[in-house]
Write a structure and sequence with these properties.
By secondary structure, the chain is of the alpha/beta class. The chain has a domain of about 210 residues: NAD(P)-binding Rossmann-like Domain (Rossmann fold). Helices cover about 40% and strands about 15% of the residues. The protein has 10 helices and 13 strands. A 7-stranded parallel β-sheet has the order 3-2-1-4-5-7-11, sandwiched between helices. Helix 1 crosses helix 6 and helix 7 runs parallel beside helix 10. The longest helix is centred in the middle third of the chain and has 20 residues. The protein binds NADP nicotinamide-adenine-dinucleotide phosphate.
Length: about 300
């Protein structure tokens, strides 16, 4: 297959490397110059372009069989989200719809689910997020689903949970820096997925995802913060983080969701197989990797 990865960052780069290893011809689009060497070393042909500027897409060396849109606005606000996710996706649809594209995978987020009642959330559950940025992601999904039904645009949407893996994993990184705080009584639920499994889920979706369908990309076990930190504490022999103060809890509470996201559909209908079905599997591997590399301090 001729594959274009739009956004060759934390997920896109190893995704491209794996697709190249599998024998596909892989192109990787980034916004800024300077990272070409890493792409070339991974077997990816580097391209520069900006999805928010449609004129930069036309000269790219299409057509492509598979396209993955995994651009990220980083920590941008709602205006940047609108430019990069919504307008960027609109430009990609306009550019690719007249071509013989076989599959288009978009990495959305489980943040589109606004549930606060600890319920089990499936793809058919309602998407009414409180935050403006997550609302932009819902609009972006709608754009793709409309294009799938009206124009047979072969879009598959993956709602990806909090990604962890080498150098990532917000709570874990905070814990290692002694900056973590347990929110409330530690009952807040975390839904996560290892980066290797995100890569596998995207490849599975390229092969077997059904156009016009949405799949959650999350591991098997939503976990409470307290349980997560207890496991880290016992595994690393390091103190539990302190509980947050009332002021810290009050500041953080607004807009927080509380939900258990299910991966059943991606596993049963697409055949996605997880290498790290729970955070224990993924973080055991991550801890071993950092310890083997001498990058983890002894616990206290
Ligand atoms: N991280 C998470 O926990 C999480 C959770 C749910 C969903 N997701 C989704 O997963 C996907 C992958 O995230 P990631 O962590 O791999 O992101 P990342 O490391 O920040 O990489 C993003 C890539 O997108 C490129 N990019 C940004 N703006 C662009 C633009 N306007 N035009 C073209 N390329 C652009 C960047 O290029 P430059 O390097 O040149 O700027 C970079 O290569 C994203 O869609 C994200 O929303 C992530």
């Amino acid at each position: 297959m001729r594959v274009l990865i739009v956004g060759c960052g934390y997920v896109g780069l190893p995704l491209g490397a794996e697709l190249a290893r599998l024998g596909h011809e892989v192109f990787g689009l980034r916004r800024s110059a300077g990272g070409e060497d890493a792409l070339i070393a991974a077997g990816i042909k580097p391209l520069i372009g900006d999805v928010s500027k449609s004129e930069t897409l036309a000269p790219l060396p299409g057509p492509f069989d598979w396209v993955v849109n995994c651009v990220s606005s980083g920590k941008g606000g709602a205006a940047e989200y609108r430019e990069i996710y919504l307008n960027g996706t609109r430009h990609l649809i306009e550019w690719l719809a007249p071509t013989p594209l076989k599959k288009f995978v978009y990495t959305s987020s489980t943040s589109v689910y606004g549930q606060t009642d600890s319920s089990l959330v499936k793809e058919s559950s309602s998407t009414q997020p409180q935050s403006e940025t997550s609302q932009v992601l819902v609009e972006t999904e709608k754009l793709l689903l409309d294009a799938a039904s009206a124009r047979k645009f072969p879009a598959v949407i993956l709602r990806v949970a909090g990604i962890y893996g080498p150098e990532r994993g917000h709570l874990y990184q905070q814990y290692l820096r002694d900056e973590a705080r347990i929110a409330g009584k530690g009952e807040r639920l975390i839904n996560m997925v290892h980066r290797d499994d995100v890569v596998a889920c995207i490849i599975t979706a390229l092969k077997s995802g059904k156009p016009g369908e949405v799949y959650n990309a999350v591991d098997d076990e939503p976990v409470t913060q307290l349980h997560f930190f207890r496991w880290l504490s016992e595994t690393l022999g390091k103190d539990l983080p302190p509980f947050a103060t009332e002021e810290e809890n009050a500041a953080r509470k607004r807009g927080l969701t509380q939900k258990k996201v299910s991966n059943r559909k991606a596993r049963m209908e697409m055949g996605w197989q997880l290498k790290y079905p729970t955070f224990r599997h993924g973080y055991s591997a991550e801890i071993k990797r950092t310890q083997d590399g001498g990058m983890l301090d002894a616990g206290k």
